[in-house]
TrEMBL record:
Protein name (record): 2-iminobutanoate/2-iminopropanoate deaminase
Lineage top rank: taxon: Bacteria
GO CC entries: cytosol
Lineage of the species this protein comes from: Bacteria, Bacillati, Actinomycetota, Actinomycetes, Micrococcales
One Gene Ontology MF term: 2-iminobutanoate/2-iminopropanoate deaminase
Tagged with keyword Protein biosynthesis: no
Organism of this sequence: Microcella alkalica
Swiss-Prot/TrEMBL keywords: Hydrolase
Stored Gene3D superfamilies: RutC-like (3.30.1330.40)
Family matches, as InterPro entries: RutC-like_sf, YjgF/YER057c/UK114
EC id: 3.5.99.10
Length: 153
């Protein structure tokens, strides 16, 4: 077990570790992040592999062009996240929290973790992962991500 490092500044936040930290463990989350500047919190609605803008009530044919595989959906979801972050004046390292909803964790978590790790390029937000029976938008969706970022003031 490694010594507990002091807080590490990432954008508008500090990454916090506590007793039990082991830098050799590969993990897609950190235990805590503290917003340290007068940053503004940005709450991003759930991103999926489906088109961001779509009618309500949902029209199933609108979603026929989205990928049905996990790799295609995760690329779309992170592309949508990139657009929302940029529109809010944020960058990838400004993400402080992700809540990840999966319809099948066993089938998709490793694919998502790999893409997420590459997309963040070394930045690791706090995270919670849940398995649910279905997502509201379309039954073909495999996961959805709710994100909070700390935008520069």
């Amino acid at each position: 077990m490694s010594a507990i490092p002091g807080p590490r500044r990432v954008g508008n936040a500090e990454v916090i570790h506590h007793e039990g930290y082991d830098e050799s463990i590969v993990s897609p989350f950190v235990p805590a992040i503290r917003v340290v500047s007068n940053a503004r919190l940005v709450f991003i609605s759930g991103v999926t592999g489906a088109p961001v803008y779509h009618d309500h009530p949902h029209q199933p044919e609108v979603f026929d062009s989205m990928p049905t595989d996990a790799a295609g959906q995760v690329r779309n979801a992170f592309d949508h996240l990139e657009l929302a972050l940029a529109a809010a004046g944020c960058e990838r390292h400004d993400v402080v929290n992700m809540i990840r909803f999966f319809t099948d964790i066993e089938a998709d978590q490793d694919i998502v973790n790999k893409h997420q790790g590459e997309w963040f390029g070394g930045h690791i937000p706090t995270s919670t992962t849940l398995e649910i029976s279905r997502l509201a938008t379309d039954p073909r969706l495999r996961f959805e991500f709710h994100v909070v970022a700390a935008a520069p003031a």
